Amino acid sequence: MTTPPPATFDLASVDHVLKTTRSVRRRLDLDRPVPATLIREALDIALQAPTGANTQTWRFMVITDPVKRAKIADYYRLAAEAYVGGKTGLSRTGVTMMREYASSDLRQQQREAMMKSGGFLMENLQRVPVMIIPCIEGRFEQDDVFTQASMWGSILPATWSLMLALRARRIASAWTTLHLLYEREISEMLGIPADFTQAALLPVAWLTGGDLKPAVRLPLETVTYWDQWDG
Prior knowledge:
Blueprint: H1 11-19, H2 36-46, E1 58-63, H3 66-84, H4 106-109, H5 111-124, E2 130-137, H6 145-152, H7 156-168, E3 171-173, H8 183-190, E4 196-198, E5 202-206
Antiparallel strand pairs: 1-2, 2-4, 2-5, 3-5
Helix pairs in contact: 2-7
């Protein structure tokens, strides 16, 4: 029998946060400062995420300096241009925003809006009041799948918890990775040790406008298999 949640557990609120936490780009408030106290609260919650072998080797680089934010934004734009132009290894995986789908596929129907959203962030990234780069100790890009999965599994859940904690405080964020094409240069600028791996770049700002709604996604039955992959 499934044990019901405690009476003090607001399941509806938790579900709402989970269903409305995603990459926000065009509704980031680029002018309103985000208090450091709220960033610290969200980071403290992120530290409760799972960590492989209890190593807790995560680190979080918070960037508020306008000069450094501008430089990161410059690298981001260079990476975005290379990505869209198919000049990176990412284009060979088939998983790219340039990927084409059937006209009836909702992903194709959402593509124009996604491109506009991505373009807005690319043009305005330097204006975002806070950037957070989650990092994990070690360099494992040449390691076996088990090692890579274990290492990513020790930083990505914490990063997602951070985004959820921010969302619960009405602070928006976006999961981006394009800057990683210039990871070495950005690490040198920020003093991130060479033996640490950057996992993402989160532009963080207050959410503008009304509340977010759940995103339109592919139907559950088209992406879920029970006991046997039959797709």
